[in-house]
Protein backbone atom coordinates (compact mmCIF):
# COMPACT_ATOMS: atom_id res chain seq x y z
CA UNK A 1 0.00 0.00 0.00
CA UNK A 2 2.61 2.50 1.01
CA UNK A 3 4.68 1.96 -2.14
CA UNK A 4 1.67 2.56 -4.37
CA UNK A 5 0.69 5.80 -2.66
CA UNK A 6 4.30 6.98 -2.80
CA UNK A 7 4.28 6.32 -6.53
CA UNK A 8 1.01 8.20 -6.94
CA UNK A 9 2.40 11.08 -4.99
CA UNK A 10 5.43 11.15 -7.25
CA UNK A 11 3.34 11.12 -10.41
CA UNK A 12 1.10 13.85 -9.04
CA UNK A 13 4.13 15.93 -8.10
CA UNK A 14 5.67 15.52 -11.56
CA UNK A 15 2.40 16.59 -13.18
CA UNK A 16 2.25 19.69 -11.03
CA UNK A 17 5.84 20.60 -11.89
CA UNK A 18 5.32 20.07 -15.62
CA UNK A 19 2.08 22.07 -15.67
CA UNK A 20 3.63 24.91 -13.69
CA UNK A 21 6.69 25.01 -15.93
CA UNK A 22 4.49 25.03 -19.01
CA UNK A 23 2.29 27.84 -17.73
CA UNK A 24 5.34 29.83 -16.69
CA UNK A 25 6.89 29.36 -20.11
CA UNK A 26 3.67 30.55 -21.75
CA UNK A 27 3.70 33.56 -19.46
CA UNK A 28 7.22 34.72 -20.29
CA UNK A 29 7.14 34.08 -24.03
CA UNK A 30 6.80 37.24 -26.18
CA UNK A 31 3.57 36.12 -27.86
CA UNK A 32 1.62 35.95 -24.60
CA UNK A 33 3.01 39.21 -23.22
CA UNK A 34 1.82 41.11 -26.30
CA UNK A 35 -1.61 39.52 -25.90
CA UNK A 36 -1.76 40.57 -22.26
CA UNK A 37 -0.63 44.15 -22.59
CA UNK A 38 -1.66 44.78 -26.16
CA UNK A 39 1.71 46.44 -26.41
CA UNK A 40 4.97 46.72 -24.55
CA UNK A 41 5.62 48.65 -21.36
CA UNK A 42 6.29 52.31 -21.89
CA UNK A 43 9.38 54.02 -20.65
CA UNK A 44 9.77 57.68 -19.85
CA UNK A 45 12.04 59.49 -22.27
CA UNK A 46 14.46 60.20 -19.47
CA UNK A 47 14.81 56.65 -18.22
CA UNK A 48 18.24 55.14 -18.84
CA UNK A 49 18.62 51.67 -20.24
CA UNK A 50 21.17 48.89 -20.15
CA UNK A 51 21.75 47.01 -23.40
CA UNK A 52 23.64 43.76 -23.98
CA UNK A 53 25.17 43.11 -27.40
CA UNK A 54 26.43 39.63 -28.31
CA UNK A 55 29.38 39.73 -30.72
CA UNK A 56 31.12 36.87 -32.44
CA UNK A 57 33.02 35.89 -35.57
CA UNK A 58 34.22 38.38 -38.19
CA UNK A 59 31.22 38.86 -40.44
CA UNK A 60 28.65 39.11 -37.67
CA UNK A 61 30.73 41.60 -35.72
CA UNK A 62 31.37 43.78 -38.77
CA UNK A 63 27.66 43.90 -39.45
CA UNK A 64 26.87 44.71 -35.84
CA UNK A 65 29.15 47.75 -36.09
CA UNK A 66 26.93 49.07 -38.83
CA UNK A 67 23.67 48.14 -37.05
CA UNK A 68 24.59 50.06 -33.92
CA UNK A 69 25.79 53.19 -35.75
CA UNK A 70 23.03 55.50 -34.46
CA UNK A 71 22.52 54.20 -30.94
CA UNK A 72 21.99 57.07 -28.53
CA UNK A 73 24.47 56.53 -25.68
CA UNK A 74 22.63 59.06 -23.53
CA UNK A 75 19.63 56.75 -23.57
CA UNK A 76 21.44 53.39 -23.56
CA UNK A 77 23.85 54.62 -20.97
CA UNK A 78 25.29 51.21 -20.17
CA UNK A 79 26.35 48.94 -23.02
CA UNK A 80 27.70 45.46 -22.30
CA UNK A 81 29.37 43.47 -25.08
CA UNK A 82 29.54 39.69 -24.74
CA UNK A 83 32.25 37.87 -26.70
CA UNK A 84 33.40 34.26 -26.53
CA UNK A 85 36.85 33.44 -25.19
CA UNK A 86 39.66 33.54 -27.73
CA UNK A 87 37.81 35.91 -30.04
CA UNK A 88 40.21 38.82 -29.77
CA UNK A 89 38.94 40.22 -33.09
CA UNK A 90 35.47 40.87 -31.67
CA UNK A 91 36.88 42.14 -28.39
CA UNK A 92 38.82 44.74 -30.34
CA UNK A 93 35.76 45.60 -32.41
CA UNK A 94 33.76 46.43 -29.26
CA UNK A 95 36.02 49.45 -28.76
CA UNK A 96 35.55 50.37 -32.42
CA UNK A 97 31.75 50.20 -32.10
CA UNK A 98 32.10 52.48 -29.08
CA UNK A 99 34.17 54.89 -31.13
CA UNK A 100 31.33 55.17 -33.66
CA UNK A 101 28.63 55.54 -30.99
CA UNK A 102 30.50 57.99 -28.79
CA UNK A 103 31.99 60.18 -31.51
CA UNK A 104 28.55 61.47 -32.49
CA UNK A 105 27.76 62.72 -29.00
CA UNK A 106 30.98 64.22 -27.72
CA UNK A 107 32.32 67.57 -28.89
CA UNK A 108 35.94 67.58 -30.05
CA UNK A 109 36.01 63.81 -29.77
CA UNK A 110 39.43 62.19 -29.70
CA UNK A 111 39.10 58.65 -28.35
CA UNK A 112 36.34 56.50 -26.85
CA UNK A 113 36.26 55.88 -23.11
CA UNK A 114 37.92 52.69 -21.92
CA UNK A 115 35.81 49.76 -20.73
CA UNK A 116 34.46 50.46 -17.27
CA UNK A 117 35.05 54.22 -17.38
CA UNK A 118 32.06 56.51 -16.89
CA UNK A 119 31.42 59.62 -19.00
CA UNK A 120 28.80 62.29 -18.37
CA UNK A 121 27.52 62.19 -21.94
CA UNK A 122 28.14 58.69 -23.20
CA UNK A 123 27.69 56.66 -20.02
CA UNK A 124 29.73 53.52 -19.74
CA UNK A 125 30.47 50.27 -21.54
CA UNK A 126 32.11 46.98 -20.64
CA UNK A 127 33.18 43.68 -22.11
CA UNK A 128 32.23 40.24 -20.77
CA UNK A 129 33.88 37.02 -21.94
CA UNK A 130 32.06 33.68 -21.92
CA UNK A 131 33.42 30.20 -22.77
CA UNK A 132 33.11 29.01 -26.35
CA UNK A 133 30.17 26.69 -27.20
CA UNK A 134 32.34 24.75 -29.64
CA UNK A 135 35.96 25.23 -30.58
CA UNK A 136 37.08 24.71 -34.17
CA UNK A 137 38.01 21.03 -34.75
CA UNK A 138 36.52 20.01 -31.41
CA UNK A 139 35.21 16.40 -31.54
CA UNK A 140 31.44 16.28 -31.91
CA UNK A 141 30.75 14.09 -28.85
CA UNK A 142 32.21 16.63 -26.46
CA UNK A 143 30.09 19.47 -27.85
CA UNK A 144 27.17 18.95 -25.40
CA UNK A 145 29.57 19.39 -22.48
CA UNK A 146 31.26 22.49 -23.84
CA UNK A 147 27.83 23.91 -24.72
CA UNK A 148 26.64 23.34 -21.16
CA UNK A 149 29.81 24.99 -19.89
CA UNK A 150 29.10 27.92 -22.21
CA UNK A 151 25.50 28.13 -20.94
CA UNK A 152 26.66 28.24 -17.33
CA UNK A 153 29.13 30.96 -18.32
CA UNK A 154 26.30 32.94 -19.93
CA UNK A 155 24.07 32.59 -16.85
CA UNK A 156 26.93 33.84 -14.67
CA UNK A 157 27.71 36.66 -17.08
CA UNK A 158 24.12 37.92 -17.16
CA UNK A 159 23.88 37.68 -13.38
CA UNK A 160 27.17 39.54 -12.94
CA UNK A 161 26.21 42.21 -15.43
CA UNK A 162 22.96 42.89 -13.57
CA UNK A 163 24.90 43.58 -10.40
CA UNK A 164 27.32 45.82 -12.26
CA UNK A 165 24.58 47.76 -14.07
CA UNK A 166 25.24 51.50 -13.93
CA UNK A 167 21.84 52.57 -15.22
CA UNK A 168 19.59 50.30 -13.20
CA UNK A 169 21.66 48.89 -10.32
CA UNK A 170 20.85 45.32 -9.34
CA UNK A 171 18.42 44.95 -12.22
CA UNK A 172 18.84 42.76 -15.27
CA UNK A 173 19.59 44.44 -18.64
CA UNK A 174 16.64 45.88 -20.57
CA UNK A 175 17.48 44.42 -23.93
CA UNK A 176 19.71 41.75 -25.52
CA UNK A 177 20.75 42.33 -29.13
CA UNK A 178 22.33 39.82 -31.46
CA UNK A 179 22.79 38.92 -35.10
CA UNK A 180 23.56 35.27 -34.99
CA UNK A 181 26.89 33.86 -33.78
CA UNK A 182 26.58 30.52 -31.95
CA UNK A 183 27.29 32.21 -28.60
CA UNK A 184 24.19 34.35 -29.11
CA UNK A 185 21.87 31.35 -28.94
CA UNK A 186 23.43 30.39 -25.60
CA UNK A 187 23.10 33.93 -24.20
CA UNK A 188 19.45 34.06 -25.26
CA UNK A 189 18.82 30.62 -23.77
CA UNK A 190 20.41 31.78 -20.52
CA UNK A 191 18.24 34.93 -20.48
CA UNK A 192 15.12 32.82 -21.01
CA UNK A 193 16.08 30.41 -18.23
CA UNK A 194 16.56 33.32 -15.83
CA UNK A 195 13.11 34.60 -16.73
CA UNK A 196 11.56 31.13 -16.52
CA UNK A 197 12.72 30.69 -12.93
CA UNK A 198 11.76 34.27 -12.11
CA UNK A 199 15.34 35.18 -11.27
CA UNK A 200 14.85 38.01 -13.75
CA UNK A 201 11.49 39.75 -14.32
CA UNK A 202 9.67 38.78 -17.54
CA UNK A 203 9.73 42.34 -18.91
CA UNK A 204 13.52 42.58 -18.65
CA UNK A 205 16.06 41.28 -21.18
CA UNK A 206 13.85 41.74 -24.25
CA UNK A 207 15.46 39.80 -27.06
CA UNK A 208 16.12 41.27 -30.51
CA UNK A 209 17.52 39.15 -33.31
CA UNK A 210 18.66 40.58 -36.64
CA UNK A 211 19.32 38.12 -39.45
CA UNK A 212 22.48 38.84 -41.43
CA UNK A 213 22.21 41.00 -44.55
CA UNK A 214 23.82 38.11 -46.44
CA UNK A 215 20.72 35.97 -45.87
CA UNK A 216 18.38 36.53 -48.78
CA UNK A 217 16.22 33.41 -49.05
CA UNK A 218 17.06 31.21 -46.08
CA UNK A 219 17.73 31.82 -42.38
CA UNK A 220 21.06 30.95 -40.78
CA UNK A 221 21.14 28.05 -38.32
CA UNK A 222 20.96 30.42 -35.32
CA UNK A 223 18.04 32.20 -36.97
CA UNK A 224 16.17 28.96 -37.57
CA UNK A 225 16.65 27.80 -33.98
CA UNK A 226 15.56 31.14 -32.51
CA UNK A 227 12.53 31.49 -34.78
CA UNK A 228 11.43 27.95 -34.01
CA UNK A 229 11.63 28.46 -30.24
CA UNK A 230 9.76 31.75 -30.50
CA UNK A 231 11.72 33.39 -27.69
CA UNK A 232 12.65 36.59 -29.55
CA UNK A 233 10.64 39.73 -28.85
CA UNK A 234 11.64 41.09 -32.23
CA UNK A 235 12.95 39.10 -35.16
CA UNK A 236 14.19 41.23 -38.06
CA UNK A 237 15.29 40.14 -41.52
CA UNK A 238 16.80 42.50 -44.07
CA UNK A 239 15.37 41.22 -47.35
CA UNK A 240 11.72 41.41 -48.29
CA UNK A 241 11.95 38.12 -50.17
CA UNK A 242 13.02 36.32 -46.99
CA UNK A 243 10.28 37.95 -44.90
CA UNK A 244 7.64 36.97 -47.44
CA UNK A 245 8.89 33.42 -47.60
CA UNK A 246 8.73 32.98 -43.80
CA UNK A 247 5.53 34.88 -43.09
CA UNK A 248 3.65 33.38 -46.02
CA UNK A 249 0.12 34.62 -46.44
CA UNK A 250 -0.93 34.25 -42.81
CA UNK A 251 -1.96 37.29 -40.76
CA UNK A 252 0.53 36.64 -37.95
CA UNK A 253 3.91 38.01 -38.88
CA UNK A 254 6.72 35.86 -37.53
CA UNK A 255 9.48 38.13 -38.78
CA UNK A 256 9.63 41.82 -39.61
CA UNK A 257 11.18 43.55 -42.59
CA UNK A 258 11.98 47.27 -42.51
CA UNK A 259 14.58 47.48 -45.27
CA UNK A 260 18.35 47.23 -44.96
CA UNK A 261 19.33 47.86 -41.36
CA UNK A 262 23.03 47.92 -42.25
CA UNK A 263 24.44 50.94 -43.98
CA UNK B 1 41.69 60.13 -67.00
CA UNK B 2 42.22 57.17 -64.73
CA UNK B 3 39.75 54.33 -64.44
CA UNK B 4 40.42 51.64 -61.87
CA UNK B 5 39.10 48.10 -61.57
CA UNK B 6 39.52 46.28 -58.24
CA UNK B 7 39.44 42.49 -58.27
CA UNK B 8 39.07 40.91 -54.83
CA UNK B 9 38.83 37.23 -53.87
CA UNK B 10 38.31 37.76 -50.15
CA UNK B 11 40.43 36.66 -47.25
CA UNK B 12 38.91 33.30 -46.29
CA UNK B 13 38.93 30.97 -49.29
CA UNK B 14 41.29 30.96 -52.29
CA UNK B 15 39.60 31.76 -55.61
CA UNK B 16 42.23 31.39 -58.37
CA UNK B 17 39.54 30.90 -61.04
CA UNK B 18 38.40 34.50 -60.62
CA UNK B 19 41.95 35.84 -61.04
CA UNK B 20 42.43 33.67 -64.12
CA UNK B 21 39.14 34.82 -65.63
CA UNK B 22 40.13 38.47 -65.34
CA UNK B 23 43.61 37.84 -66.79
CA UNK B 24 42.24 36.16 -69.91
CA UNK B 25 43.12 38.22 -73.04
CA UNK B 26 39.43 38.60 -73.84
CA UNK B 27 38.63 40.18 -70.45
CA UNK B 28 41.69 42.42 -70.50
CA UNK B 29 40.83 43.63 -74.00
CA UNK B 30 37.27 44.49 -72.91
CA UNK B 31 38.52 46.40 -69.87
CA UNK B 32 40.98 48.33 -72.04
CA UNK B 33 38.24 49.07 -74.59
CA UNK B 34 36.01 50.43 -71.83
CA UNK B 35 38.67 52.94 -70.83
CA UNK B 36 40.22 51.23 -67.83
CA UNK B 37 43.79 52.22 -67.03
CA UNK B 38 44.60 50.18 -63.96
CA UNK B 39 43.75 46.82 -62.36
CA UNK B 40 44.27 46.14 -58.65
CA UNK B 41 44.22 42.50 -57.53
CA UNK B 42 43.64 41.37 -53.96
CA UNK B 43 44.13 37.68 -54.57
CA UNK B 44 44.94 35.98 -51.25
CA UNK B 45 46.85 32.72 -51.65
CA UNK B 46 46.82 33.04 -55.44
CA UNK B 47 49.44 35.80 -55.00
CA UNK B 48 52.20 33.17 -55.00
CA UNK B 49 51.28 31.87 -58.46
CA UNK B 50 50.25 35.23 -59.91
CA UNK B 51 53.47 35.58 -61.94
CA UNK B 52 52.63 32.41 -63.87
CA UNK B 53 49.07 33.51 -64.60
CA UNK B 54 50.13 36.90 -65.89
CA UNK B 55 49.83 37.20 -69.69
CA UNK B 56 52.66 38.79 -71.69
CA UNK B 57 50.34 41.34 -73.25
CA UNK B 58 48.79 43.69 -70.66
CA UNK B 59 46.74 45.56 -73.27
CA UNK B 60 48.30 48.70 -71.83
CA UNK B 61 46.79 48.22 -68.38
CA UNK B 62 48.70 48.95 -65.17
CA UNK B 63 48.57 45.93 -62.86
CA UNK B 64 49.03 46.03 -59.08
CA UNK B 65 48.91 42.85 -56.99
CA UNK B 66 48.93 41.99 -53.29
CA UNK B 67 47.64 39.12 -51.15
CA UNK B 68 45.95 40.76 -48.16
CA UNK B 69 45.72 44.16 -46.54
CA UNK B 70 45.30 43.93 -42.78
CA UNK B 71 43.31 47.15 -42.58
CA UNK B 72 40.89 46.29 -45.38
CA UNK B 73 40.36 47.49 -48.91
CA UNK B 74 38.92 50.91 -48.21
CA UNK B 75 41.73 52.79 -49.96
CA UNK B 76 41.53 50.56 -53.05
CA UNK B 77 37.73 50.85 -53.15
CA UNK B 78 37.98 54.63 -53.07
CA UNK B 79 40.39 54.54 -56.01
CA UNK B 80 37.53 53.02 -58.04
CA UNK B 81 35.33 56.04 -57.35
CA UNK B 82 35.03 58.93 -59.77
CA UNK B 83 37.18 61.95 -58.85
CA UNK B 84 36.59 65.18 -60.72
CA UNK B 85 39.26 65.62 -63.40
CA UNK B 86 41.33 62.66 -62.18
CA UNK B 87 39.32 59.46 -62.45
CA UNK B 88 36.17 58.04 -63.98
CA UNK B 89 33.80 55.67 -62.22
CA UNK B 90 35.55 52.30 -61.99
CA UNK B 91 34.47 48.77 -61.26
CA UNK B 92 34.76 46.15 -58.51
CA UNK B 93 34.85 42.45 -59.42
CA UNK B 94 34.45 40.41 -56.25
CA UNK B 95 33.50 37.09 -54.71
CA UNK B 96 30.04 37.03 -53.10
CA UNK B 97 31.21 37.96 -49.58
CA UNK B 98 28.69 40.23 -47.90
CA UNK B 99 31.32 42.51 -46.36
CA UNK B 100 32.98 43.35 -49.68
CA UNK B 101 29.66 43.87 -51.45
CA UNK B 102 28.39 46.17 -48.70
CA UNK B 103 31.60 48.23 -48.83
CA UNK B 104 31.23 48.58 -52.59
CA UNK B 105 27.56 49.52 -52.40
CA UNK B 106 28.26 52.11 -49.69
CA UNK B 107 30.64 53.87 -52.08
CA UNK B 108 28.19 53.56 -54.98
CA UNK B 109 30.56 51.48 -57.11
CA UNK B 110 29.66 49.27 -60.05
CA UNK B 111 29.89 45.67 -58.89
CA UNK B 112 30.32 42.33 -60.60
CA UNK B 113 29.66 39.53 -58.12
CA UNK B 114 31.10 36.11 -58.89
CA UNK B 115 30.07 33.42 -56.36
CA UNK B 116 32.77 30.88 -55.62
CA UNK B 117 31.52 27.53 -56.92
CA UNK B 118 33.94 25.55 -54.81
CA UNK B 119 32.28 26.72 -51.60
CA UNK B 120 29.29 24.64 -50.60
CA UNK B 121 27.53 27.68 -49.26
CA UNK B 122 24.57 28.49 -51.40
CA UNK B 123 23.48 31.57 -49.46
CA UNK B 124 26.23 33.50 -51.25
CA UNK B 125 24.71 32.45 -54.55
CA UNK B 126 21.27 33.56 -53.33
CA UNK B 127 22.68 36.91 -52.31
CA UNK B 128 24.26 37.41 -55.74
CA UNK B 129 21.00 36.48 -57.48
CA UNK B 130 18.94 38.92 -55.41
CA UNK B 131 21.43 41.75 -55.96
CA UNK B 132 21.26 41.14 -59.70
CA UNK B 133 17.46 41.02 -59.57
CA UNK B 134 17.25 44.35 -57.75
CA UNK B 135 19.86 45.99 -59.95
CA UNK B 136 22.51 46.54 -57.27
CA UNK B 137 25.11 44.37 -58.98
CA UNK B 138 25.83 42.20 -62.00
CA UNK B 139 26.00 38.50 -61.17
CA UNK B 140 28.43 36.44 -63.17
CA UNK B 141 30.41 33.24 -63.37
CA UNK B 142 34.11 32.87 -64.06
CA UNK B 143 33.42 31.65 -67.62
CA UNK B 144 30.93 34.41 -68.41
CA UNK B 145 33.02 37.27 -67.01
CA UNK B 146 33.75 39.16 -70.29
CA UNK B 147 30.02 39.40 -70.95
CA UNK B 148 29.40 40.70 -67.41
CA UNK B 149 32.13 43.33 -67.80
CA UNK B 150 30.37 44.63 -70.90
CA UNK B 151 26.97 44.73 -69.14
CA UNK B 152 28.30 46.34 -65.96
CA UNK B 153 30.11 49.08 -67.90
CA UNK B 154 26.93 49.93 -69.75
CA UNK B 155 24.36 49.95 -67.01
CA UNK B 156 26.08 51.63 -64.06
CA UNK B 157 25.12 51.20 -60.45
CA UNK B 158 21.79 51.56 -58.70
CA UNK B 159 22.20 53.83 -55.70
CA UNK B 160 20.85 52.28 -52.55
CA UNK B 161 20.26 55.42 -50.50
CA UNK B 162 16.79 55.70 -49.03
CA UNK B 163 16.50 51.98 -48.71
CA UNK B 164 17.90 51.92 -45.22
CA UNK B 165 16.03 51.66 -41.95
CA UNK B 166 17.34 52.61 -38.53
CA UNK B 167 17.95 49.71 -36.19
CA UNK B 168 18.15 52.09 -33.22
CA UNK B 169 14.44 52.90 -33.67
CA UNK B 170 13.57 49.23 -33.62
CA UNK B 171 15.40 48.82 -30.31
CA UNK B 172 13.56 51.84 -28.89
CA UNK B 173 10.24 50.23 -29.77
CA UNK B 174 11.10 47.02 -27.94
CA UNK B 175 12.49 48.78 -24.87
CA UNK B 176 9.43 51.03 -24.85
CA UNK B 177 10.58 54.60 -25.40
CA UNK B 178 7.41 56.50 -26.15
CA UNK B 179 8.59 59.31 -28.38
CA UNK B 180 9.47 56.90 -31.13
CA UNK B 181 6.49 54.68 -30.72
CA UNK B 182 3.10 56.03 -31.66
CA UNK B 183 0.49 54.48 -29.36
CA UNK B 184 -1.13 51.90 -31.55
CA UNK B 185 -4.16 50.01 -30.30
CA UNK B 186 -4.39 46.66 -31.93
Automatic annotation (TrEMBL), chain A:
Gene Ontology cellular-component terms listed: nuclear membrane; UDP-N-acetylglucosamine transferase complex
Membrane topology annotation: Single-pass membrane protein
MF annotations from Gene Ontology: N-acetylglucosaminyldiphosphodolichol N-acetylglucosaminyltransferase activity
Primary location: endoplasmic reticulum
Keyword Transmembrane among record annotations: yes
Localisation per UniProt entry: Endoplasmic reticulum membrane; Nucleus membrane
Example GO BP: dolichol-linked oligosaccharide biosynthetic process
Similarity annotation: Belongs to the ALG14 family.
Record function comment: Involved in protein N-glycosylation. Essential for the second step of the dolichol-linked oligosaccharide pathway. Anchors the catalytic subunit ALG13 to the ER.
Assembly mode: Heterodimer with ALG13 to form a functional enzyme.
Protein name: UDP-N-acetylglucosamine transferase subunit ALG14
Record organism: Hyaloscypha bicolor E
From TrEMBL, chain B:
EC top class named in words: transferase
UniProt keyword terms in alphabetical order: Endoplasmic reticulum, Glycosyltransferase, Transferase
GO molecular function: N-acetylglucosaminyldiphosphodolichol N-acetylglucosaminyltransferase activity
Keyword check for DNA damage: no
GO cellular component: endoplasmic reticulum
Substrates-to-products reaction catalysed: an N-acetyl-alpha-D-glucosaminyl-diphospho-di-trans,poly-cis-dolichol + UDP-N-acetyl-alpha-D-glucosamine = an N,N'-diacetylchitobiosyl-diphospho-di-trans,poly-cis-dolichol + UDP + H(+)
Annotated compartments: Endoplasmic reticulum
A Pfam family: Glyco_tran_28_C
Superkingdom field: Eukaryota
Similarity section: Belongs to the glycosyltransferase 28 family.
Function in brief: Involved in protein N-glycosylation. Essential for the second step of the dolichol-linked oligosaccharide pathway.
Protein name: UDP-N-acetylglucosamine transferase subunit ALG13
Organism: Hyaloscypha bicolor E
Amino acid sequence: MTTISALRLMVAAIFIVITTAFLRLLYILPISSTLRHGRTIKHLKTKLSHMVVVLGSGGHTAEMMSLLRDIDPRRYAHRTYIVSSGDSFSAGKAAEIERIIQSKHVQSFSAPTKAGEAHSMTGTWDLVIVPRARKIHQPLYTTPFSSLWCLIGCLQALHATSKASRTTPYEYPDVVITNGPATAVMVILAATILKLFAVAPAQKMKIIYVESWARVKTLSLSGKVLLWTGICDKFLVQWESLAKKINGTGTRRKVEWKGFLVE
Amino acid sequence: MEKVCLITTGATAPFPELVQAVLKPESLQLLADNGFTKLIFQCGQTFKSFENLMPTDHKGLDIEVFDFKADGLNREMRMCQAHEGIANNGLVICHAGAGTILDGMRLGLSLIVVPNDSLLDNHQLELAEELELQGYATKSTTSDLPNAIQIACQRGQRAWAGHNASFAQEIDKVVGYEDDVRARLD
